Amino acid sequence: MSDRQAAQFEDLPTSLVDIADALGLRVALKLMQNYGGMDVRFPARPKSDHPVIKALGETDAIALCHFLSGQSIYVPRRPSPGSVRADVHRMEAAGYDRAAIAQELRISMRHVRRLANGDQGDDRQADLFD
Predict the structure, then answer these.
(1) Is residue 98 classed exposed, middle or buried when 0-12, 13-18 and 19+ CB atoms within 10 A define those classes?
(2) How far is CA 113 from CA 37, 84, 106, 121, in A?
(3) Which InterPro entries match (predicted)?
(4) Gyration radius of the chain's alpha carbons
(5) In this structure, are residues 61 and 46 in contact, taking their beta carbons and an 8 Å threshold?
(6) What pLDDT is stored for residue 4 in this prediction?
(7) Is 80 helix (H, G, I), strand (E, B) or coil?
(8) What are the phi and psi torsion angles at 118 (to 5°)?
(9) What burial class does residue 78 get, using C-beta atoms within 10 Å of its C-beta: 0-12 exposed, 13-18 middle, 19+ buried?
(10) pLDDT at res. 2
(11) What is the DSSP annotation of 93-108?
């Protein structure tokens, strides 16, 4: 696996890592692109006109439906939060202004500012994920 591909695997939300590992990073990214922010049920045997087949292509969709075989999953909208922070820092270093970064990453300017300034939240509150 190349360094770039390894970095992209690390950027994936945890819920999609198994899909990327089994079917490839391309399938996981197409899934996020087409169904990000949605709960999706994957039939064991999708019909040729099923929306998943139209969105992912027949080969990838059939492989994914076979892999998930009747399960429903929530497909995250974005990669993991750490990768968004890294994207903000990379784009700032490349000279993008914060409005352009917000538009490109489809996040608010306030969130861009928070990530760029390294805001880690309120020290008086416990971290939700600790």
Answers:
(1) middle
(2) 23, 12, 14, 13
(3) Homeodomain-like_sf
(4) 17
(5) yes
(6) 46
(7) coil
(8) 75, 25
(9) middle
(10) 45
(11) HTT--HHHHHHHHTS-
Ordered alpha helix ranges (H), the chain: 3-11, 14-23, 25-35, 51-56, 58-68, 81-93, 98-105, 109-116
The token pair that represents 52 in the structure block: 């998943």
Q: Which amino acid is at 126?
A: A
Angstrom CA distances, 109 to 48, 97, 112, stand at 42, 10, 5
Place of tokens 């914060």: 98
pTM for this model (two decimals): 0.59
Distance CA 44, CA 69 (A): 4
Percent of the chain with pLDDT over 90: 38
Token pair for residue 17?
A: 């890592």
Residue type (1 letter), 27: V
**In this structure, what are the phi and psi dihedrals at residue 55, rounded to the nearest 5 degrees?**
-80, -40
How many Å apart are CA 64 and CA 119, to the nearest integer? 38
